[in-house]
Amino acid sequence: MELIKLIYKKFTRVEEFLTNFFLAAITVLVFLSAVARTVKHPLNWAVDLSLLLFAWEVFLGGDIAVRNTKLIGVEVLADKLPAKVQKAMAVVFFVMIIAFCLFLTYFGVKLSFENTKRLFQVLGISYSWCTICVPIGCFFMAVSSCIKINEIIKTPVSAWERKNREVEA
What global pTM score does this model have? Predict the structure, then answer.
């Protein structure tokens, strides 16, 4: 079990590095593309590469958001409920995320296979390299959601009650 935790920790570091790198690369590519267009020497490949990196950025970043529980929520209402209900709602919420992510994983794989012959206009690579980020990212999000459910279940209700008191203070 410790080996799995170590591998997962290294995976999360790689994922965070990649999202940071992709964001920096997209910024540089868009800037260079704009400058090159201004001087009448457009970098047509920069748009396609930015699109590819952005797609991966979104889905890998989504996994980071799920892992760090940085998701949109209506806590004003949920914080008024008893701690047991909050805990149950959190589990239901993550089960819904898992169901949706597995749905997208299944259909994302199908979409990726359907896009094998479609090419990026300038890059000359299959558009599947872009669409495969959907099932991969969603699978990672489902795994992170399962880990979150495990953490929620292991957390005693008293810890939820303490959290509520801290929020009120």
Answer: 0.87
